[in-house]
Amino acid sequence: MAVKTSKSQPRGKEQIDERMQQENQDSDNETADRSETQNEESSARDTNSQQKNGRSASQSEGKKVRVDRDTLVMGLNHDLSGEYQAVLMYTHYAAKLTGPYRKELRALFQGEVTDEQGHAQFLADKIAALGGEPTTQPRPVISADNPRAMLENALAAEKQAIADYRVRIDQAEEFGDVGLKVELENQIADETRHKEEMERILAEWK
Cβ atoms within 10 A of the Cβ of 89, count? Predict the structure, then answer.
C-alpha cells in the first residue's frame, strides 16, 4: 500500500523572504523620511539667512519696504548734522589759514560756508515741515594745522555728503516726496562742484 507524502513548501524559506522584503521597505521609508527632514532643515536655514540679512521673503522677491516719515526725518537730521559740521569746519579753517595761499583759500572756504548754510536751512525747514525736530548737533570737526590737511579733510566731508544725499534721494522717492528728491539732487550738484574744486587744487599741490 503506497503512503502519500505532503507537498507543502518549507516555511523557513518563506519567512526569510518576507523578512527581507520588510527590511527593504523599512529602509526605503527611512531614506524618504531622512530626505524630507533634510529638505525642511535646508528651507529653515534659507529663511533664517534671509532674516539675518534684514530681508523678508517678500523682499527677496524684489518687493521694497516703504520708507516711513520717522525714517526719513532721522536721515535728514543725519544730513543736517553734516551741514553744521561743514559750516563750522570751513569757518574754523578760514581763520587758521597761513602761508602763501592764505588769501585764495580763505575766500574759497568762506564761499563754501554760504552754500552749506543754505543747505542746512533747507534741511531744518523740511524736517520741521515733516513734523520732526531739527537737530542742533554738528558732527565733530577734524582739526588741521596746514592748508593741505584742511583741503583733504574738506574733500572727505564733501564726498560723504554726496553719498549721504544719494541715500536720502532714494528714501524721498520711496516716501513719495518728489519735491524733496529734486531739492536733494540740487544739493548733490553743489557738493559735487565743491568736491571737484578741492580735487583740482590738491592735484597740483606742491
Answer: 25
> Residue 99: which of 48, 37, 150, 155 has the closest Cα?
150
Structurally, the chain folds into a number of domains equal to 1
Dihedral sign (CA 58, 63, 68, 73) = positive
pLDDT tens profile 126-137: 999 999 999 999
- CB atoms under 10 Å from CB of 79, counted, come to 23
Give me the sign of the Cα torsion angle 118, 123, 126, 127: negative
What span, in angstroms and rounded, lies between the C-alpha atoms of 202 and 154? 11
Look up cell 536655514; give the residue: 45
Write down the pTM of the prediction.
0.68
- What percent of the chain stands above pLDDT 90? 65
- Phi and psi at 159, nearest 5°, equal -65, -40
Amino acid found at 157: A
**Residue 123 to residue 77: CA distance in whole angstroms:** 8
pLDDT at 120: 97
Residue tagged 520711496 (cell numbers):
174
List the domain range (segments joined by +) for residue 124.
69-134+143-203
- 87 lies in some domain: yes
CATH number for the domain harbouring residue 161:
1.20.1260.10
| Under 8 Å between Cβ of 106 and 163 | no
Measure Cα distances from 105 to 18, 49, 190, 196, 203 in Å. 97, 51, 18, 15, 15
